[in-house]
Amino acid sequence: MVQQSLIEYIQNLLKQGYDISTIRNALLNAGYSPYDVDMAMRVAGATERKVSTKTLIILFIALLAVSGILLVILKTMQAPPAVLSFNVNLFSTQVAPGRDLVINAEILNPSGTKTSGLIDYEVSGPSGRVASKTESFTVVARASVPTSISLPPAAIPGTYSITAKLSYAGKQQQTSRTFDVVEKAEMAVPAEVLKEKKAEEAKAFQLTCPGGCDDLNFCTSDECVQGVCISTTIVPCCGNNRCEEGESKSSCPIDCSEKPISVDELLQKAKEAAAADLGRAEEICDSLVQRVYVDSCLLDVSEASSSKEPCASIVNSDKRDACYIPFAYKNDFTVCAEITNPYMKNSCQSLESMAYINATYG
What we know:
There is one protein chain. By secondary structure, the chain is α+β, with helices and mostly antiparallel strands. About 40% of the residues lie in helices and about 25% in strands. The protein has a five-stranded mixed sheet, with no helix packed on it. The longest helix has 25 residues, at about 55-75. It is elongated, with a radius of gyration of 39 Å. It starts with a helix and ends with a helix.
């Protein structure tokens, strides 16, 4: 007969949270026989539950199924790997020895995942490789990567090729274009005329400032007067971190706002406003005042809004041309007349001719 006191003792230990193995070992160490301990624990309800092999197999299969589902979900949540589309255009297919071959690489990224890499250029001609260059890039949706490669002055006239290799995330793409190196004919000039021309050039040189007069300070107006650089301080000067007389929150928010607004913040605001309100975006650009900032802002707004209207307000010719040329790649050839860079204009007109041929005979 099992002692009632032993049964109650075991039940009390179970209520306190002790596990069966600990209780059994304690009772055996206290001198109780294994038979009495086992009987008392059975009566007290402290029996170990054995899990059947079938139950263990079912649990294992369920665990595998849950793990598989989690892996599928995690894989689905991961951003798709970037697969870039790559194209190279030449601004001119005829280049003289010693001149620059101007190139524009267009990179499209359908995945929208920020991707960085390198573009390796190699120029080869009748005598083998003559030039090479490497450019880096970062693209989210679309990127234009312009560059130029100087041809050797001794380049032999003939047909040349340029190979562009795009490398990113362990992947590579390659494309090639051909162009011609041509001699530039020069007319013979009589010695007397040449001597007179050189004298005029020397005199003009003395009255100019060959190194330029830009002191890289946007708060000064720089000019060359009779061969001497003269810099005049601009007052007020928006962008010098001082709210001066003649400036206000509306005319110069960078300097006069209660909470200083950085150029980057205004550029971001302009891009965000571009899609919904182009006029408001251009107003934000104008509030930057400094021309270099305004032009960069208008270029970003044009891209964000897919509108060529802001391009016309850009003063810097290089940035204005860079603003117009993407629209030519979208078959809007009205921009060709607005482009001033001769190589870029030629490229624009070539694209227009190709589009006409494809539409007529394709």
